[in-house]
Amino acid sequence: MDIDARGPRFGAAVTTVVLAVVLITGSAWLLAWQTLAFALGAAGGVGRSPYGLLFRTAVRPRLGPPTEFEAPEPPRFAQAVGLVFAALGLVGYAVGPEWLGLAATGAALAAAFLNAAFGYCLGCEMYLLVRRAAVRAE
Known about the structure:
Layout: E1 3-4, H1 6-25, H2 28-44, H3 50-59, E2 69-70, H4 73-94, H5 98-118, H6 122-137
Antiparallel strand pairs: 1-2
Helix pairs in contact: 1-2, 1-3, 1-5, 2-4, 4-5, 4-6
């Protein structure tokens, strides 16, 4: 079943703010929260992530009905990619080297910002490339 395309974009906006605060403060705890949010989104789909639940309960009722839908698999894959970068960032902040935390968090922030500001989901595009490569390999 397709999902409201505004939900992942809302989640990307919240993620952008969270990751920006992580870079400003160096908070490993806040990055741990974001890592958990990515993990829940990757495991259960974006609708089951904390930001997806917030969108569904607090934001979507205030909006009109959705006019654009998307398949749930690309955003779910994007959550898994975000999880990898957030986990690397968490390792960097928690045990070092610090540059790893900064770089991985910065990369995740850049991807989240692109989705939030322009609707361009890098992880979704990666999903499509992987799918095309898998079809060609068959």
